[in-house]
Amino acid sequence: MAVLAPLIALLYSVPRLSRWLARPYCLLSALLSAAFLLVRKLPPLCHGLPTQREDGNPCDFDWREVEILMFLSAIVMMKNRRSIFLMTCKPPLYMGPEYIKYFSDKTIDEELERDKRVTWIVEFFANWSNDCQSFAPIYADLSLKYNCTGLNFGKVDVGRYTDVSTRYKVSTSPLTKQLPTLILFQGGKEVMRRPQIDKKGRAVSWTFSEENVIREFNLNELYQRAKKISKTGDNTPEEQSVAPTPTTVPDGESKKDK
Predict the structure, then answer these.
(1) How does 247-257 read in b/e, with b if 16+ C-beta sit within 10 Å?
(2) Which of 12, 1, 128, 31 has the alpha carbon at shortest distance from 80?
(3) Nearest-CA neighbor of 94 among 119, 145, 129?
(4) pLDDT tens per residue, range 26-71
(5) Which pLDDT value is given to residue 245?
(6) What is the pLDDT of residue 102?
(7) For 87-124, b where at least 16 C-beta lie within 10 A, e where not — what string?
């Protein structure tokens, strides 16, 4: 995105491109930008370049270069405001059916601690994240398939409630790539999360697909276990709420006999 943004802005201003190229300064800047991309990406030339990437790959951008490119992209967006729509075009918000409870900064702790028998899978997301919006229909389908009394699905907008992101150690920086984050809570405590975080606070690459979520979080086993809990928990209130049932008659007689 950091590389495509200035290119899209440049293509959007094609009618003025000829006048820009007539200026030596603009022509030299364009040549230098193209030379940087070629030297960094072309394998024969990039092997001797220094890098700060963990995998030691010199033919890819490190975090410093990504920050510089994002800063330059912001400048290009300010200079070409008419092209902002093209560069910020995102998938539409998901508006389909779902069994998901939305938390705020004041309700998330209370809900997780309300019933220790309930297992929660909570997605930490932000509306501005394209990855979160792409994962929204997948997460909604999972909630429709696996939601029950003992297994609930929740979401919290860490872009809006920043203190929640700090409390649960979910970074909202685009450079860390921690959004979205799925956390499994059992007994009110965190059991696991995806993606995992390395020592430098960056997310380990993980694909947010339905198959990966089912496999990594073992949803089939969690669902079967949660259904057993819900059945045992639902029987008691039903028997107590119904007045004249066969089960209540012997209870009344036994009390009289006593």
Answers:
(1) eeeeeeeeeee
(2) 12
(3) 129
(4) 667 777 777 777 777 777 777 777 766 666 677 777 767 777 778 7
(5) 37
(6) 96
(7) beeeeeebeeebebbebebeebeebbeebeebbbbbbb
* Digit-coded pLDDT (tens) for 190-205: 999 999 998 888 899 9
Query: What is the distance between the alpha carbons of residues 154 and 151, in angstroms, rounded to a whole number?
Result: 10
State the DSSP H helix or E strand holding residue 183, giving kind and residue range, or none if neither: strand 181-186
Helices 130-146/219-241 angle, 10° precision: 50
User: CB-hemisphere CA count at 13 Å for 212?
Assistant: 12
| Range list of H helices, the chain | 4-12, 17-21, 24-41, 43-46, 63-79, 84-87, 108-114, 130-146, 162-167, 210-216, 219-241, 248-257
Please give the single-letter amino acid code of residue 157: D
Closest CA to 154 of 92, 96, 196, 104: 104
